[in-house]
Design a protein that fits this description.
single chain, Helicase, Ruva Protein, domain 3, 9 helices, 43% helix, alpha/beta, Dna Topoisomerase Vi A Subunit, Chain: A, domain 2, 2 domains, two-stranded antiparallel ribbon
Length: 206
């Protein structure tokens, strides 16, 4: 693709670094910004820079946050005795959009995947165990993607918690194996959480 301007070419190349953005889409976005007022484009750029520089991770659940402790963890109306264990921030957003879950979260930051060089030490598992011990957690809902890596992670965490008096459940398999929570419709996801199964039943279904 030939460009009449090196500045436009550089901007297009930067946009193509984003997931799912090809050169044609990148060019369309760049040309859109080119038509906008300078102040609008400056605000766009400043917002992205401020987000990257100032974003924090919650000290309790590891979700992204504007403050040291996120708004969900600070919400006293939520049930602190239930933790929903998820892989990443996108899964928190997906579950929150169902408006059916009123407990707290624990974001692992990934799943165990030896082929990708990700082991338990790369995840927020130790802090999960600490929360169960210190915060009187009664139930942990394993809301990980139904994949081989997700199942391996659930199995590992359940072993780490076997000496704790905590109920471990898993979202029901209304979600197809290999699916991702963020792409599941809200009704199906809400039902999967509401009809969650004891972890022992989850194993028997495999």
């Amino acid at each position: 693709m030939n460009f009449p301007s090196k500045l436009i070419e550089d901007a297009v190349n930067e946009f193509t670094k984003l997931p799912g953005i090809g050169k044609k889409t990148a060019l369309r976005l760049v040309l859109h910004l080119l038509k906008e007022e300078t102040k609008t484009v400056e605000m766009f750029g400043e917002t992205v820079i401020r987000m990257r520089q100032d974003i924090q991770f919650c000290q309790k659940c590891h979700n992204v946050s504007d403050h040291p402790v996120c708004s969900i963890c600070l919400d006293l109306s939520r049930d602190a005795s239930i933790l929903c264990v998820v892989e990443n921030m996108r899964d928190v957003i997906a579950i929150e959009n169902t408006h059916q879950y009123k407990g707290l979260y624990h974001v692992l930051g990934g799943v165990i995947s030896p082929i990708d060089g990700i082991g338990p030490d790369n995840l927020h598992v130790d802090s999960l165990v600490d929360r169960v011990k210190k915060d009187e957690v009664k139930e942990i809902i394993m809301a990980l993607n139904p994949t081989m890596e997700g199942d391996t992670t659930i199995f590992y965490i359940s072993k780490r918690l076997r000496d704790q008096s905590v109920r471990i459940t898993s979202i029901a398999r209304g979600i197809a194996f290999g699916g991702e929570l963020e792409y599941v419709d809200e009704l199906t996801l809400a039902r999967s959480i509401a009809t969650r199964l004891p972890y022992e039943n989850y194993l028997m279904n495999h």
